[in-house]
Amino acid sequence: MKTYLVTGGAGFIGSNFIHYMLKKYSDIKIINYDKLTYAGNLENLKSISKNPNYIFIQGDICNRKKLQQLFQKYDIDYVINFAAESHVDRSIRDPEVFVKTNVLGTVALLDTAKNAWIVQNGFKQGKKYLQVSTDEVYGSLGSEGYFTEKTPLDSHSPYSSSKASADLMVKAYFDTYKMPVNITRCSNNYGPYQFLEKLIPLVINNCLNKMHIPVYGDGLNIRDWLYVEDHCKAIDMVIHSGPCGEVYNIGGHNERTNIQIVKTIISYIHDNVDSSVGERLIKYVEDRKGHDRRYGIDPTKIKDKLGWYPETKFEDGIVKTIKWYLGNKDWMNNVTSGDYKKYYEKMYKDK
Ligand code: NAD
Ligand code: DAU
């Protein structure tokens, strides 16, 4: 029975990953280690909280002592590091916590795993550390071309620079100690359990509450959207089949401008939920500082080498996602009754 240490498992992608893995494998143990910041929500895992193969431990990836105790208590085979401060807008206002968690936390986790796994002639068999990174480390594209694994790192925001720094530390542990690691760099995810501060759930929530939808700048920035389950599938494949030291880009060639995303959601809600919701809710607001123009992933390597492919078409995934939020209003109310309301008022008050 393999034991997975999933950090940040109470967040958006981490919780989807835990659901995905426990559904797929009955012979694994998952330890979810999460600090439960504003973005961590145990509601996301309510349906599996009593599964005997699942354990939750509240903790910070910067806390080496707690991490060491974890590695002493359990024979951990795989570490999948989702834990991060993940929101670009927050990083522009308060960069320091991004360096603490995303850089120093990653190093604490890497180092603890290394110390637990190292033996005289290398590392114990079958161990692996996977760093969940992002396409944002590559910077911004013009209207043509794609990010490949060979594209130089050229991050711009405090968030993406903290993720790029973490990637370089993971690389250093492979180059220096030959630690068994992989890095995955995925494009924008969407799906159930995404915190409401991110574009897609924010638009759904604002439509349902008839609030303005803030569109940054001219609304023509492009993101490359992937349904979250396809990201989870890719991570599972990289853990089991990716040769150590390799980096994999993950994306499904689903580029959309932000305004296209906004209009798609408005139109679905107008047609299926409330005909009074319409494009007049759109409000063009001041642009994000240093706003990356376009992301576009070239996923050729993971497709050719590991046989990964995305299963959910954007047209289906976006409807599934909107329906999930509509069917989980308690989950949304739970989020909006917490700090989110204060964050939203502060963030958008001058816009
Ligand atoms: P999220 O903000 O929804 O969740 C982050 C989780 O990490 C939360 O549960 C939070 O409580 C936990 N956490 C934060 N600081 C911690 C700490 N110091 N110690 C332990 N736990 C901590 O983020 P997400 O969108 O699920 O992203 C997960 C990972 O995937 C991140 O590393 C992010 O950079 C990466 N990523 C995200 C996307 C995307 O579109 N959301 C795309 C590519 C990569
Ligand atoms: O590309 C992967 C990255 O995608 C991940 O690494 C990040 O963790 C994740 O947050 C996401 O970053 P983005 O900045 O692309 O996502 P966000 O949902 O914040 O914004 C998507 C686009 O929408 C971006 O161009 C900014 C714009 N936007 C966002 C918000 C919240 C708006 O126009 N209005 C908004 O209110």
Summarize the structure in words.
The protein has eleven helices and 14 strands. The protein has helices at residues 12-24, 64-73, 88-93, 96-117, 158-177, 199-208, 228-241, 258-272, 300-306, 314-327, 329-348, and strands spanning 2-7, 28-34, 54-58, 78-81, 118-119, 122-123, 128-134, 181-186, 188-190, 213-216, 222-227, 247-250, 255-257, 282-285. It has 351 residues and is α/β, with parallel strands linked by helices. Strands 3-2-1-4-7-8-12 form a seven-stranded parallel sheet, with helices on both faces. Strands 9-11-13 form a three-stranded mixed sheet. Strands 5-6 form a two-stranded antiparallel sheet. The longest helix has 22 residues, at 96-117. The chain has a domain at 2-190 and 226-254 and 290-312: NAD(P)-binding Rossmann-like Domain (Rossmann fold). Helix content is 43%, strand content 18%. It starts with a strand and ends with a helix. The model has no long low-confidence stretch (mean pLDDT 97). Bound molecules: nicotinamide-adenine-dinucleotide (NAD) and 2'deoxy-thymidine-5'-diphospho-alpha-D-glucose (DAU). The site of nicotinamide-adenine-dinucleotide (NAD) has 30 residues, from helix 1, helix 4, strand 7 and strand 9. It holds the Pfam family GDP_Man_Dehyd. Belongs to the NAD(P)-dependent epimerase/dehydratase family. dTDP-glucose dehydratase subfamily.
